[in-house]
Design a protein that fits this description.
326 residues; six-stranded parallel sheet
C-alpha cells in the first residue's frame, strides 16, 4: 500500500471509530438526562415543521413522545391519500428524534401518520431504540401495521424508514407475510446490503471471531452485528432478490453517507425498485447519514414518493450542510 493509501486507510478507520464513539456518547448523554412524560399529540393545522434542533430538543425533553401530526388514531384515510404512512426510525434513535419535520409535513398534507419505537433492549433506558434482533423488531412492525390498518380502515400502508428502519421492513415484507399489507417502502439511507462502517468491520470482525463474547450482540445491541457487511442475517434477507412483487421501493441516499458504507449498499435491485442519489438532483446537498431525515431535498423526494410518485420529479435544490441539514 502506498503512503497515501495508508493515510486514507487510517483516516477511514479513525472516522469509523469517531462515529461509534459519538453514537455511544449520545446514548450515554440521553441516558443521563431525566425524561418527561410524553404529551398527547396536537393536530391543529398547520403544524410547525421542525428541524434537527427540534429533534434534539424532543430527544432530551421527551424521548418517548411522538412527533407532531403522528398517531391520531381517529384519522381515516381519504380517496386522495388512501394509504396511512408508518414512520420507522433507525438504530440508536426514536420517533421523537427522527420525525419532527416529516411527520408534520405529512399530516399537513392530509395523510394519516403513525410511528412507534421498536427494538428495545437492556441498553434502551427508555430513550434509544432499534437495538434488538431485527427479526424481533420486524414482528413489532407487523403488529403495529395491523393496528394501523384496523384503526384507519385502509387496505395497505406506506412505510418510510431511516437506516435500519428502511431495511428492517423488508424482513416483514419477505419473511413475515407483510407484502399484501404494504403499498410502498421508502428508505432514507437504508442499510439494505450492510455496512463496513468506513472500514471499521475489517478490524472488528476478526476480533469478534477470535474473542468469545466480544460483540455488540453480547452487550445488548444485536442489530449492529446484523447490519454489518457479510452478516448471516443480511445473507438470508437478500437471498432470492431484494424486492417482492407488487410492492414499490424507493431508496433515497447520499454519497456522503458515513454510516452505510459504501453508500451504494443502500440501493436495491429488482422489480419495483427506484434508487435516488441526492447529489444527482442537487450538487450542493452535502447531507450524510444522520442529517438525511431533516434534509429538505430528501424530504421533498419522500413527499413525491408517497404522493404523485413521479420518477422524473426533481426537488428544489438548495445548500444542505452535513448534520445540520440546512
Amino acid at each position: 500500500m502506498t503512503g497515501m493509501g495508508s493515510r486514507l486507510g487510517r483516516r477511514h478507520y479513525l472516522s469509523a471509530i469517531g462515529m461509534l464513539i459519538g453514537a455511544i456518547c449520545l446514548m450515554l448523554a440521553t441516558m443521563m438526562t431525566s425524561g418527561v412524560a410524553a404529551a398527547a399529540p396536537a393536530f391543529s393545522q398547520p403544524l410547525p415543521i421542525g428541524n434537527v434542533f427540534t429533534g434534539l430538543a424532543a430527544e432530551i425533553a421527551a424521548p418517548t413522545s411522538m412527533p407532531p401530526g403522528s398517531d391520531n388514531w381517529a384519522c381515516h384515510v381519504s380517496a386522495q391519500h388512501p394509504y396511512p404512512v408508518v414512520l420507522v426510525h433507525g438504530t440508536i434513535a426514536n420517533q421523537a428524534l427522527s420525525w419532527q419535520a416529516l411527520s408534520p409535513m405529512l399530516a399537513n398534507a392530509g395523510y394519516c401518520v403513525y410511528g412507534f419505537n421498536y427494538g428495545a433492549t437492556s441498553l434502551t433506558f427508555g430513550r434509544v431504540f432499534g437495538l434488538a434482533p431485527i427479526q424481533q423488531s420486524a414482528a413489532e412492525l407487523s403488529a403495529f401495521i395491523a393496528r394501523v390498518l384496523a384503526a384507519t380502515g385502509a387496505a395497505k400502508v406506506d412505510i418510510v424508514g431511516h437506516s435500519q428502519g428502511g431495511m428492517m421492513p423488508r424482513y416483514y415484507l419477505k419473511l413475515l407475510g407483510g407484502a399484501p399489507k404494504v403499498h410502498m417502502l421508502v428508505g432514507l439511507a437504508p442499510s439494505n446490503h450492510g455496512t463496513n462502517l468506513d472500514g471499521f468491520t475489517d478490524a472488528y470482525s476478526p476480533l469478534a471471531d477470535a474473542i468469545p463474547g466480544l460483540s455488540f450482540t453480547t452487550f445488548g445491541a444485536p442489530s449492529f452485528d446484523q447490519q454489518f457487511l457479510g452478516s448471516s442475517f443480511l445473507a438470508a434477507l437478500n437471498h432470492g432478490g431484494d424486492t417482492v412483487p407488487e410492492v414499490k421501493y424507493v431508496v433515497i441516499e447520499s454519497r456522503y453517507d458515513e454510516v452505510v458504507t459504501p453508500y451504494t449498499n443502500a440501493f436495491l435491485t429488482g422489480a419495483g425498485a427506484q434508487n435516488i442519489l441526492l447529489q444527482n438532483q442537487c450538487s450542493t446537498d452535502f447531507t450524510e447519514h444522520i442529517g438525511i431525515i431533516y434534509d429538505p431535498v430528501a424530504l421533498q423526494d419522500v413527499m413525491n414518493a408517497v404522493g404523485a410518485d413521479n420518477p422524473s420529479f426533481r426537488p428544489t435544490c438548495s445548500l444542505v450542510l452535513p448534520l445540520l441539514s440546512g
